[in-house]
Design brief:
Number of helices: 8
Shape: globular
Largest sheet: 8 strands, mixed
CATH class: Alpha Beta
Number of domains: 1
CATH topology: Rossmann fold
Distance between the termini: 31 Å
CATH superfamily: Alpha/Beta hydrolase fold, catalytic domain
Strand order of the largest sheet: 3-4-6-5-7-8-9-10
Radius of gyration: 18 Å
Helix content: 25-40%
Structural class: alpha/beta
Amino acid sequence: MPPHNNGPTMAAARLEREYKPKKLPCSSASTMLARNGLAAVQVKPRPMPTRAPATQNKAGWLANAINANVQAQPTAVATVVAWAPTRGIDRVEVRVEGSWMTFVPRSGSPGAGFVFYPGGRVDARAYAPLAHEIAAQGFLVVIVRIPLNLAVFNPNAAEAVLATYPEVQGWVVGGHSLGGAMAASFARQNLSQVEGLILLASYPASSADLSATDLAVLSIYATQDGLASVDKIRAAQTLLPASTQWVAIEGGNHAQFGWYGEQPGDGVATLSRSEQHRQTLAAILKFLESVQSR
């Protein structure tokens, strides 16, 4: 995640340099997900436009590319492993409609909801296993899908979700990397509607300073993360409330917060993706339970 993102232009430029996940071989992905009780199929990566000229506004170029549906050489969007849960099926209803992936507990009415913003240039489906397991514990989870997989183009994506589910009393927003930064921005602008923020390998931009708020915040980071490094996480502490809960995943890295491939510049994890997933899930559930009980 780029530090202190103050606008789409800076974010787009940094993402071109930093967010380039590699293709994840189907066989490796299948094995990886099977260990976590999930089945896998390969999803074809989307092509992206060629690089913008150095003199052109890159944020504007990317927006125009979306509108024009420009498709050139295949590049950096993560090849994601789509999923079909092999456990807990009876506890969660999955709806894929429009720009949302919604995970609804089948029993009872969820007292808290979680809107998740995917990481930069990572297909939203990479976070489906995490969302499914959270929903299986009784929480409504909505993953917002944003054009070109760049949350910077719609930081207010959670707004429509909150309006669609007025029966949910406590809302938490969050995300991975760039997605977390955009979730923080939304939370800063909507403090009366949001009770919590979850950051995975992420931190807010200086324009979304939350330090003077009473927002409940959970920050989960990994010690081997080469992108949202421990130093960057520590440097951004002053932008978060003093009550922020910090969870360090020893040996984890950036890419293993989702179910996709490696990323250039990331560190080498010393624990499995399944174990990082388990620790992340446990911390998120504990936090959501605390929000629900407030």
